Amino acid sequence: MTNRKTLLAALLLGTAIVNPAAAETTLNALFMAQAAYSEADVRAMTDAFIAENPDIKVNLEFVPYEGLHDKTLLALGSGSGYDVVLFDVIWPAEFAENNVLVDVTDRITQEMKDGVLPGAWTTVEYDGKRYGMPWILDTKYLFYNKDLLAQAGITAPPTTWEELSEQAQAVREKGLLDHPIVWSWAQAEAVICDYTTLVSANGGDFIADGKPAFQTGGGLEALRYMVDSYNSGLTNPNSKEYLEEDVRRVFQNGEAAFALNWTYMYNLANDPNESKVAGNVGVAPAPGVAGQSVVSAVNGSMGLGITTTSEHPDEAWTYITFMTSQPTQNAYARLSLPIWATSYDDPAVTAGQEDMIAAAKVGLAAMYPRPTTPGYQEMSAALQQAIQEALLGQASPADALAAAAEGGGL
């Protein structure tokens, strides 16, 4: 009897020791190591989540944006992928068609439906379903160096792209900078975001009646503007090799009067520990085209989703809802603005970045989408090559875009 009691006690003691460990869940999450929220921000958010949910641990991995898409697919194919992934607004069609992300339409609460800005939902939608929660709500803005503009006799930032060229010319004629404009025109998705901004300004289309339409109309005018700005020398010639972080570095070193970039650059470029132009950073919605548009904007938003191979979808959703919640986003609104409508009236969010918020209210309402198609990656790659060829003078804008339309994945 004694032996049985001892054995029973040992078993109970063992259960008491083992159960907590058995109940602990570990999530693997994949994030981006550039723009928007910093790696430190994401780690701090995650630490706060773990403090509230001690039975859930989260392993974080960060990769450059350029590796995010393929890393997600490769991990999924190996069967040992991630539970939570950050995904771009351009991927839901492909990811839905290839069963990469879980349809979470039924998990979306009424509070989420009512509180999130309507445009943010387009980040995670495809074919009437939602494949995650929007997390990064962003577009590109025109940043300008107030001091350089004042020295050139300019009293207000440009409201049209033509006026931008004129103001850049004025800066150059004053001998302030040889190349006043900087862009992210490397052969990567970054250049497509700049190109899309210009397409939106010119009233262009990427696809019409199921066929490529960017090779004519506003799409052609957009590339012509890029090539003219590059050939004139108003654009920094290194722009053809730059990504967004390069643009930020050049601008905050005082080497550009104008730059197109995401929200995150505003507070970093205004940080005296980071920037030589702190206090002189102006921001405005990207310009329009006379007779076509008042402003221009690209939808550069991103969402958090659950992979179809996750063995912990409920815990993954708990993590996603924490990361995208209004309190979390409001607390980290310096580099990426919240998806929640009422956040823009919260002094804790707006204080110290009133100009950024004012530009965002206009820019976010004008966001123009890149094509929603399962073949987007092929179209983007063809356009990236076409833009590079046109900038380098290897083909005219018309010929380069015509070739991209022929081999662009549609």
UniProtKB/TrEMBL annotation:
It comes from the Bacteria. It holds the Pfam family SBP_bac_1. Keywords: Signal, Transport. Residues 1-23 form the signal peptide. It is found in: Periplasm. Transmembrane segments: none annotated. This is Extracellular solute-binding protein.
